[in-house]
Amino acid sequence: MQMGCLSTIASLKPKNLTMIVMDNGIYQITGAQPTPAAAVADIVAIAGGCGLANSAWAADEDDFERLVEQSLSASGPTLIGVRIDDKPGVGQPAGIPYRSESASCSDSACGKRYEFTGLR
User: On the CB side of 8, how many CA atoms lie within 13 Å of its CA?
Assistant: First the structure.
């Protein structure tokens, strides 16, 4: 999403939109360079400046859950910022489809075959 989207969202005021920004402070995919948010930019303050009044940083997990609940009954769009560490995830969260090596559908990029077995 580009920054101009925030002011567009603020002007349209959809009641059923919650944006969650997971900020690890780096561009992880391109070599872990620091993002502007890591040093000087504050995405929650930027969202507020664009007109998104329901914008806040989650202080911890309990606060995050409270902000999400609050967003579900908000009268306009909400942006929730969450600062996370820059460590790669470990394991796979519950509810994410996974692949097991087997014969069902093919992945032409690597020549392997996978069976999609649904949710764990």
Answer: 5
